[in-house]
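Chapter summary example: a protein plus NDP.
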Amino acid sequence: MTARIIDGIALSAEVRGQLAERAAALKSKGITPCLAAILVGEDPASAVYVRNKVAACEKAGMRSIKDVYSVDVDPAVVFARIAELNADPAVHGILVQLPLPKHFDSAAVLESISPEKDVDGFHAENVGALMQGNPRFIPCTPYGVMKMLESANVPLKGAEVVIVGRSNIVGKPMAMLLLAKSCTVTICHSQSKDLAFHTRRADILVAAVGRAKMITGDMIKPGATVIDVGINRNSEGKLCGDVDFDSAKEVAGAITPVPGGVGPMTITMLLANTLEAAERVAAGNAKGVAK
Ligand code: NDP
């Protein structure tokens, strides 16, 4: 058996086309959706992520602002800038690229972003809303995964889902979204006993760990849908996921590749959240309503 590939590049192109049309419609009403991105320090991966996010915005007909600070910047400077962006009616979305340098209180920075502009969905108010099944902004990576499952027509109701990884950014919100779709969800982590016992039960397996090729074909239920969120470098420096693609594709029913899977969808859903924030302003409902 060779798994069907769930192509994140093709789906991204389709969704970004729809977003560009919606952005153009808003522009004709005098509102240009605008994302402000803040980068602190010179971490090369973070710099690439921010560059890609800003470029994607421009390509979809949205405006972007990029503020870059040196690694030793006084956090007060960043807090002041966030306050300015919060107050600017022309800015609809604000993101601070993580990780921040050690002298920052990351949680305090995320909490300082106005929840109405928190397009990453990391503010406690937005996390709570998601938990209550009434999300304002869905964190971009799990949001992208949900779109991929939907586009691939993967049945969700009653499905056994196993998520490996329990981060606030991926694992936990992913679990909430799938629970809301009536999946039976198990979350595994570094202290889970007998990981393969769990993964072999999964109709849908989501790997979000950050360890190259740790999920091998023998850990996958035949016919399962495998979503690989991981972004790692192999020994030759090439990008690879948490799933050993070559062995997994022989067992799985459907699988996302790395690169070209979840990654492009993450940026696409950031654009979607920014656009939604701008649409809410246009509709006079900036506080946001349930999706
Ligand atoms: P974190 O480091 O925050 O979380 C990793 C999780 O994996 C933790 O919950 C950890 O458990 C768990 N874990 C570690 N080792 C094991 C193990 N041996 N067995 C089972 N679980 C384990 O990572 P993120 O969630 O931020 O990211 C995960 C991966 O996804 C990374 O590769 C990251 O680069 C990628 N990523 C990709 C995105 C995309 O757009 N495609 C977006 C965001 C992230 P514990 O909690 O016990 O420590």
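Key point: The radius of gyration is 19 Å.
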